[in-house]
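Hey, I was hoping to borrow your eyes for a little while. No rush at all, and the record is pasted right below:
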Amino acid sequence: MEKMRAMVLSECAEIETKPLKSIKIDKHEIERSDEILLKIEACGVCHSQLHGIEGDWQHIGIPATLPIVPGHEVVGKIIEIGKDVTKFKVGERAGITPLLEACKNCQYCDEGKEYLCESSKITGETLKGGYSEYITVRQDFATKIPDEMKSEYAAPLFCAGITAYKAVKAAEPKTDKKIGIFGIGGVGHMAVQFAKIENAKVIAFSRSQNHLDVAKRLGAVDTMIFSKEQKEFLDNLNQKHELLDAAIVFAPADIVTDTAIKSVKKGGTIVIATIGERPEFIAFEEKTIRGTLIGSTKDMEQVIKICSENDIEVIYETFPLEEANEALMKLKDSEIDARAVLVPSI
């Protein structure tokens, strides 16, 4: 069988030990009549992959199995299609979100929420991941990329972009609504822009001044360094802006979520788009806490459309496929302004 290059994780370990190994594995081939075969041109490096690789989330079953090829925001050129494929043609480009596949028959799939399907298969949780040269996917779970959109730009949209879009949508943005975004990185920098499209007043919070500078440039009305000294932080926020109408949390730290809840006015909304336990919550304040998770194929199509029509900026830094460990190390050290993108052809 023909082989392909891939960065394979056989055992969870600190990224400093370079646990991803460049090896040759069997090249993916079309096995079902509705599948397409992509030659991968770009794969975004998501912060959640770092947690999975280092074993931080093993208690919730991530990664579900080993060995795996990580990578779940993938864009590539279609080089082969199954006999029943009607959505795509050879030579076109398509992208894949973390949702590689769903059953298409359950209640969630019937409601257009296939990303909640109990039988879903996740990109990058088996040997079928984006840190490689090829991948197959059923046509219903891929999204077409416009000709004018670069693959390196498009790849981060398939996790960071759709996550940001869904989280902002859950915060119900409107003109002059004060929305705080906690965590400005690959996802947060896009959320700032999606909220600005709705004329919301965005206030960005991060531990990194570089990330805050990015948020300010992209349209945040103000930025603040996040501090674990909660009372001091909340007092400063109140003095500058009073309480927020809504908050969106992208930083996977319970102290951040707890602070975000306390930063929102009574009756406001907190959107949690990361993993963590729910901190203190006072029911009598009538706040709404909402979880959010990527989105449907229709949502993904909307993200591509919005980005094309509004010149959404995707900040990324490219790395060769074999430098996946190095890219993740820079991500861990907050040396990536927004998104790292692996490019097999470099």
The mean pLDDT is 95. Residues 297-310 form the longest helix (14 residues).
